[in-house]
Amino acid sequence: MTYNDSFIRACRKQPTDHVPVWYMRQAGRYDPDYRVIKEKFSLLEICRQPELAAEVTLMPVKKLGVDAAILYSDIMNPVASLGVDFDIVKNIGPVIENPIRTAADVDRLKPIDVEGDLGHILETIRILDKQLEVPLITFAGAPFTIASYLIEGRPSKNYIRTKELMYSQPQVWEKLMDKLGDMVIAYLRSHVKSGGKAFQLFDSWVGALAPRDFEIYVLPTITRIFAELSELDVPKIYFPGVSSGELLPSLRKLQADVIGIDWRVSITEGRRRTGGGFAVQGNLDPLLLTAPMELLKERAKDLIDEGILEPGYIFNLGHGLFPEASLDKLRGLTEFIHEYSRKVMQK
Ligand code: CP3
């Protein structure tokens, strides 16, 4: 087996013989074998066992035949090193006992010590680097998305406390963004040093902001993160999450290679709004996996036809896979993407 670098090439807008595909949340509960492991260990327990975390990362690569692996971890893992206690609670998500809500809370956050506190994650990356025949994508949560958990203490619909802090204590907010920005930079740098071949910054919930507030309160930190990491010779992806279409024009100057877009904006429109310089990744509605196979293929075909109009297209969903997705359909979809795109790209 030779190394499949189609994902890296597409990120760099270089020619490929097929459209590369991976799925956000490709390791997860839709897979019965994953559910068996989850009966024994929690997500955090899996992450603390590098051999097991590597195995879970490899499961969807083997079963689905995707063109990239994504490290099995969670966006919350690095905040443990800042001194924040959290848990990932079944059917809820990240929960924080003592949310961060005051200047003193922000002051107490320690600088990240990746080697000292998160060595198990680096070890997982090193194990995978030896075994994989496709690139390993590592990731971090972006400062707004992480802050929303730290401040709300759990997943939120309206981000009331987050926005309250942002609007009413802008200096505290800025300090928090600075500290989380530093965390992300050190964390992703050590991923690449350990063998990560690309990374994605997940800003899953930043679409809750108006474009003006995004530019004032968040974009400076995102810009700094990509600028400071620009010396790393790996593709860099920014995923501004759900309902982020109106934020896309603000991203034009980012030193990223790829922008992930959700399904509310077309690939063509996503390219236009971001200025045409980036590769794009996305953007099938994950709930299309509930549709009959014929409709799913029809939509995938249309997406590929549109994506390959310009160099630099990576097939993905517009957001993560959900637990009810079917392994068979995902396998069929992946095969279809490979076969169909191979046919039309060789014409
Ligand atoms: O993509 C992958 O396969 C890699 C693994 C991965 C996980 N979390 C494992 C996980 C990735 C990339 C993440 C990122 C993550 N975590 C994000 C950004 C991506 C996105 O979906 O927008 C966010 C917002 C989180 C925070 C988080 N962790 C939530 C909201 C939940 C869901 C709670 C639930 O039970 O549905 C989690 C838990 C989590 N992280 C699961 C997995 C596989 C599901 C629960 C489990 O299997 O224990």
- Examine the secondary-structure arrangement and name the CATH architecture of the domain at 36-275: Alpha-Beta Barrel
Count of alpha/pi helices:
14
Shape: globular
Run of helices and strands: HHHHEEEHHHEHHHEHEEHEHEH
Domain Uroporphyrinogen decarboxylase (URO-D): 20-29
GO molecular function, one term: uroporphyrinogen decarboxylase activity
Site (Transition state stabilizer): 74
Binding site for substrate: 25-29, 74, 149, 204, 319
Describe the 3D structure.
- With 347 residues, the protein is of the alpha/beta class.
- Helix content is 46%, strand content 11%.
- The chain contains 14 helices and 9 strands.
- A 7-stranded parallel sheet has the order 1-4-5-6-7-8-9.
- β2 (86-89) and β3 form a beta hairpin.
- The model has no long low-confidence stretch (mean pLDDT 97).
- Bound molecules: coproporphyrinogen III (CP3).
